[in-house]
Write a structure and sequence with these properties.
globular; 261 residues; 8-stranded mixed β-sheet; FAD/NAD(P)-binding domain; binds ligand 48H; 9 helices; alpha/beta; 42% helix
């Protein structure tokens, strides 16, 4: 049997389009496939929540691959080690309360387990805006990263989601769009405070505590939560990122459950 280029082309195009069309409406749309977004996606999908992740880059994993200064190891604390254990990532105790894991293994495992659990990851797609109805975010506005990079004037497309998670890292891109469009976030300060200088202990506590709803329909996770709430950065300890993603997933599972009642 020969190999036909047209069959290959049709297989890819039809399969992609089918999945894209079936992702036009989801329960949770996560912006950013870094450690916090992928952890959220994993826990949501595992509970059967229809979850989609949009990632600007070709590769998922965000800032995890390079560990600290490209020494590709990450450090996690005991609570987060439990998540890595579950994902099948090997961890070694370095000192009491500090575990070291391989950054590449972590990024691969997170992506693999999230997709295996049923999350749909669309890479090379950038979220540039949100869809709103009255005072609630109800969806995302998307364009190809290549269009963004080429600065072509091409209009975007949109998807709908019951909940959106801003897991875009340091820039808190979704929060910035919402702040710019509506003028005020539903946080005590009402605006993005910006990330502060490094203080790992305070930051690791803060990132989980501040992974909350910041505007109707929008949660923040990971570094985006730090930026919105003006917390210090933490450097290459990634436990907070994983725990933040897990917390947001648990919150959304609870809220979707309440809405379903
Ligand atoms: C689609 C987008 C968009 C967009 C961004 O930066 P990340 O790894 O984010 P977190 O919060 O999961 O993890 C943060 C961690 O990597 C880190 O930077 C730490 C711990 N720093 C500490 C310190 O002190 O510096 O991933 C975010 C992802 C990336 O892959 C982006 O490409 C993607 O989001 N992204 N995707 N549309 N508009 N904006």
């Amino acid at each position: 049997m020969g190999i036909d280029e047209l069959v290959i082309t049709e297989a890819i195009t039809r399969s992609y389009m089918e999945e894209f069309l079936s992702s036009l409406e989801s329960q949770v749309a996560i912006v950013g496939g870094g450690p916090s977004g992928l952890t959220a996606a994993y826990y949501l999908a595992q509970k059967g929540v229809k979850t989609v992740v949009f990632e600007r880059h070709l590769s998922i994993g965000g800032g995890m691959w390079g560990g600290g200064m490209t020494f590709n190891k990450i450090v996690v604390q005991p609570e987060a080690k439990k998540i890595l254990d579950m994902l099948g990532v090997a961890c070694k105790e370095f000192a009491e309360g500090y575990y070291v894991a391989d950054a590449v293994q972590c990024a691969c495992a997170l992506g693999y387990q999230a997709v295996k659990a049923g999350a749909r990851v669309f890479n090379a797609i950038a979220v540039e805006d949100v869809v709103m109805r009255e005072e609630r975010v109800v969806g995302l506005v998307l364009n190809w990263t290549s269009i963004e990079m080429a600065r072509l004037h091409v209009d975007p497309l949109a998807v709908r989601a019951r909940w959106v998670v801003d897991a875009t890292g340091h820039q808190a891109e979704v929060a910035r769009v919402v702040e710019a469009k509506v003028g005020k976030l539903h946080t005590p300060q009402g605006r993005i405070l910006g990330e502060r200088a490094m203080w790992a202990e305070m930051s690791e506590r803060g990132v989980v505590e501040k992974s909350v709803e910041i505007y109707p329909g929008v949660y923040v996770a990971g570094m985006a939560a730090i930026t919105v709430f003006g917390y210090p950065r933490m450097g290459p300890i990634f436990g907070g990122m994983l725990l933040s993603g897990k917390k947001v997933a648990e919150e959304l599972i609870r809220r979707l459950g309440e809405e379903g009642r």
